[in-house]
Predict the structure.
Amino acid sequence: MISVLVTASDDGKALARLLTQLVPAAAEGLVREVAVIGGDEASRAVAEEAGASQFEAGAFGDALRRARGPWVAGLPLTALFAPGWIEQLTSHLARGEAAARLVRRGGFALVSGPEGWLVPKRLAGSAVAVEQDLQRLARRGGRALRILDRP
């Protein structure tokens, strides 16, 4: 259902940690595919071992166009998922809701830290195909899903 896009860096360990966290969601059919954009040699090796599609740095638009899921999510490389995140995300999709910000869980305080985003692919195609546009789309048109955990 969801195509996940991750912009990698030179932190192969963080990428491995993130991809490992996605395995249960892939096993349940929630995550359809993962695309890793950029990264150093170690990150590319991690992506290859995990079976993720790989794209050169700056090829976000290509990764977005090739995404096959009806939903597209962008995750920060350092994301940690909170308990119950799969159920919360599945429920959001089942309600047919639109875009969402993927943020840290917590009280009513302002959310801080890295955020992810989730948008229907049909809306993502209308963006200029840069990640910042999809982040703005999720902020403007969606709710906050508190599925990320504090490090």
User: Anything to note?
Assistant: The first helix runs from residue 12 to 27. The mean pLDDT is 87. The beta strands are 2-7, 31-37, 53-55, 71-75, 100-104, 116-120, 143-148. The two ends are 27 Å apart (CA to CA).
